[in-house]
Amino acid sequence: LLNDLYTALCGENGGVFAASLRGKYRAALIDEFQDTDPVQYDIFRRIYTDPEFPLFLIGDPKQAIYSFRGADIFAYLEAAADVEEEKRFTLTGNWRSTPRLLAAFNTVFTNEARPFVFADITYHPVKSGKVEGGDELILGGGDGAPLQLWYMPPDDKGGAINVGQANDAVPAAVAAEIARLLQEGVEGKARIDDRPLLPEDIAVI
Fold first, then answer.
1. Are 140 and 188 in contact (CB under 8 A)?
2. Does the pLDDT of residue 22 top 90, yes or no?
3. What share of the chain is helix, strand, coil (3-state, %, to 5)?
């Protein structure tokens, strides 16, 4: 479907076809634009050539690195380069994460000149919209650091485990950690503010 649409827009009557689509869809807002591939971007670029018919692209280039659903980091960078500087906007407020977690991210990614390799992908320090100390996980014992990295143990020969072994080990490790936290919630050792940690407080991304 995408290829047929792209071919039609590039054809002899492509201009007429694009004008027809603009007449039907006078504006477009593409959320999660980082999941866009070059064909998809060129389709929108060919349709929305007139400033009277706005095109809004909302996305995060850092997520395009993973090539999720065919995402192409270079398509994103090309789109960013096509937009005038004064028409670019960056969200620097985060209402989902606690101040301490965001401070940890800011510390990690602002200590490296090019944390995402490409100079065009910059890290913008983020501020939390939450109150300091609110909605934070409080553990009675153990490490309460907001950002933690886990390392999988080596294989039987002392070497790094392969992808297949990791795919088997990681879900079990995550499930065990969730069970541990919920048990500590029942025991009153794991709390969010003044209440016990509950299953609905946990998400696996």
1. yes
2. yes
3. 45, 10, 45
